[in-house]
Specification:
mainly alpha, globular
Amino acid sequence: MALPDPSWSADDIVVHLRSIGTEQNRAGMARFGINIATALGVGNSELRPLARKLKKNHERALLLWDSGIREARLMAAFTGEPKKIDADMCRRWAADFDSWEIVDTVADLFAATAFWRDLVEEFAADEREFVRRTAFAMLAWGAVHLKNEPDATFLAYLPLIEKHAGDPRNFVKKAVNWALRQIGKRSVALHAPALALAERLAASSDKTARWIGKDAVKELSGAKTLERLAARTA
């Protein structure tokens, strides 16, 4: 097969992925808690450069997702076009989520849509573990990458973080914690209210909320975080 280029079809990509996957990589993924049921054994260090060569393509991304293959679905997330996807597509993909890795990768794509805020509210209310995780992964990603979004947007989500801080499921609580930390590190204006919430959670009688709060307090109060925020105001 020729070198990867934007003309490749979804089938071409899957054939290529099958040719470069290894059992060693699959075993390594399993050690990190990645669901390898459909994995071919291709690491992100190979997938991301491949995605850059293939470029964005909405229709092809849909076909890649429908393959059900872990690597193909990651490629769908890397090469999807946020301006062309709609909320129903996001819901369909979210219903297929079966791994934290898939969630966190696709959350980047979802958070780049014009309707991402609606998805956060909807997915946070969903009882499915990986769907709820998506809401908070989107907030974490957005706090870092959505530079033009006003801080007020993320400030308004602190009550949502507090509401779900008692969800004890591993992949939810870690995403809630992640979102709180990233919001608190986004700006000086957000740091104080995020830290206040973290301290409140740290004092909670609920074991999960207490873990989320203590971990967030540690990072938001850390020297590196404070120095970084101070540099932005200098």
